[in-house]
Fold this protein.
Amino acid sequence: MLDVIKRAYAARGDGDVKGLVAEFHPEGLFNLIGDNSALHLTGRVQGTQPLLAAFGQFIAHFAFEKREILAELVEGNSAAIRSRLVIRHAPSGKVFNTEVLDLFKFQDGKIIELTEFADTALIKAIIV
């Protein structure tokens, strides 16, 4: 599972949306936790085509310049990864640091669910 996660993270860092989505199960789900009325980027996306579209938008707007994994925990078909990120907001050129918590569930060797907890208030402040 950690190998799958690391390949997904590498693809995200390289801006490779197809490589990132390839690590997801065809029915894979991504959920960015947060108040959708405060930040439109939050919410759930499921299935290959919706994931390609959503991650394509994320990659176009937010370049992950550096990821440092701070903690990883694997149990059964689940994993939790806490990371520190350096992110560049492409439209504004602003660079910021933040931490995220990713909770993964796996099925058939692929990511079936990724729930991400990020500082959505910081993200909103950067993009406004």
Remarks:
- Strands lie at 24-33, 43-46, 62-75, 78-89, 95-107, 110-117.
- Residues 29 and 46 are 4 Å apart (CA to CA).
- The longest helix spans residues 48-61.
- DSSP finds four helices and six strands in the chain.
